[in-house]
Amino acid sequence: MSYTAEQGIEAACIALGLQRGRKNVLRSVDCTFKPYELTAVVGPNGAGKSSLLQCLSGVQRPSTGRIVFNGEDAGRLAASQRARLGAFLPQSETPAWSLCAADMVALGLLPWGRLPDREQRVQQALLLVDAQAFAERPVTQLSGGELRRVQLARLLVGRAPLLIADEPTAALDIRHQLQLMQNFRSLADSGKTVVLALHDLSLAARFCDRILLMLDGALLAQGAPQAVLTPALIGEAYGVSCEFRWRDGIADFVPLDLLRKSSG
Ligand SMILES: Nc1ncnc2c1ncn2[C@@H]1O[C@H](COP(=O)(O)OP(=O)(O)OP(=O)(O)O)[C@@H](O)[C@H]1O
User: Signal peptide span per the entry (predicted)?
Assistant: First the structure.
């Protein structure tokens, strides 16, 4: 591939399908993620958000369709090259051994070998998520939110132009949710392509350029927050009535009532 890791990457999913067991959990998904864009993938439990992010990151091989990075088939890339292009934070992960937080963050630099500024990068990443205070603590002794922040630092420490995070704000307190979303916003503004699965629709509306709304393995809608996060589409996807109150660019999502019996 002819571009460097610091250049932007446009990642496209083309007619993406994924079968798990007997179920088609992704059904012909077409979408494109661009440099300078922060995209939220939203939708009810089981809609296929994690499956889409796993395909995009290369953790899952799609059953049908393709992922294309800057026009080239990502499925043909060596795993090491793909890791340098796209960094991924899975929805959940339990540490297998008790390495210290700084060493866990440094794992995010593995795709680039031993960089001369390794220590600096690790310290900067820890600072981004406010985790310097527990840099030397074993990750097995951190609280859920502290561990998540260390895992987020591991995502942010590298040089990949594509950042993919599955429910990055879950487990974080409101201060750290806000700080993290501001960081993702700045990273997108600097040219990164950022894709997040989110359940918090207020955060998605406030910080993201685009929203992909998924339902039952397919895209129900995609576009700007004000176009996608409408009471009609939210009602169809989640089965709840809701209100969005927009004030100075800040969206406040208020779920009001159940519209129908849940299917999931
Ligand atoms: N390993 C698996 N084997 C079989 N089915 C699976 C597997 N993992 C997920 N699924 C199914 O795939 C569908 C999509 O799951 P996915 O995790 O992508 O949803 P999601 O939108 O991320 O949900 P959530 O909001 O609950 O995290 C669900 O119906 C789920 O039951």
Answer: none
For 46-66, give the DSSP string. Answer: TSSHHHHHHHHHTSS--SEEE
Tell me how many domains the chain contains.
1
CATH of the domain at 216: 3.40.50.300
Is the pLDDT at 263 greater than 70? The verdict is no
Q: Which domain holds residue 112?
A: 11-258
Ligand 1 site, residue 264, Cβ cutoff 6 A: no
Q: Are 222 and 233 in contact (CB under 8 A)?
A: no
Question: Tokens 């995009």 appear where?
Answer: 56
Q: How far is the CA of 61 from the centre of ligand 1 (A)?
A: 15
Nearest CA, atom 26, ligand 1 = 45
Q: Which residue's C-alpha comes closest to atom 28 of ligand 1? A: 46
Does residue 3 form part of some domain?
Answer: no
| pLDDT tens digits, 46-67 | 999 999 999 999 999 999 999 9
